[in-house]
Amino acid sequence: MSARLAVCVAALVATGSLAAQAKPSRVPAKPNATPAARPAPPVRPDSARADTARKVDSTGTPVLVREQFSYEGGGRDPFLSLLRSGDIRPLLSDLRLVGIYYDGRYPARSVAVLRDVTNAKIYRVKPGDIIGRLKTTTIRPREIVFTVQEFGFERQESLQLAKQEVTP
């Protein structure tokens, strides 16, 4: 380690001494050679147009190029409108809890059956499954808990099984 350090220091010292031996230029400076003393070149009337439209096609008209932006990072796309997120189905208000298979020994293996009342579609979900904006958080013996993601915020909602009436 110290040998490497010694080699690096020697290399830096050698290049520093060579730079110190550089010869100054012998060109004498003119008395009024400063940039502030020289007048600015005259401005052409078409210089602004030449700067903004440099590409010209074969017909002589300038070519317009449109900038395109994209977002490749994680998280919510900042260019995507938040107003479109209302179209994601199914909505929590459209779902009915039909049944639950609750595994008391391994709750992660529990399954809930949901029915969408608008189109009669059946969903079978486990904890961690995502349907639309709803993420299944917990399945309990008589209810299911969702995390609803709307407009960048999260809230907890739950659906419960309908109470059974017992006839005597």
3D structure, described in words:
With 168 residues, the chain is of the alpha+beta class. The chain has a domain of 63 residues.
Question: For the largest beta sheet, what order do the strands appear in spatially?
Answer: 4-5-6-7
Secondary-structure element string: HHEEEEEEE
CA-atom Rg in angstroms = 36 Å
pLDDT averaged over residues: 76
Shape: flat
Contiguous runs where pLDDT drops below 50 for at least 5 residues? none
| Alpha-beta content class | alpha+beta
List the helices and strands and how they pair.
Layout: H1 2-20, H2 47-52, E1 95-101, E2 111-116, E3 122-125, E4 130-131, E5 134-139, E6 143-150, E7 153-160
Antiparallel strand pairs: 1-2, 2-3, 4-5, 5-6, 6-7
What's this model, at a glance?
The protein has 168 residues and is an alpha+beta fold. 15% of the residues lie in helices and 24% in strands.
Features:
alpha+beta; 2 helices; three-stranded antiparallel sheet; flat; 24% strand; single chain; 168 residues
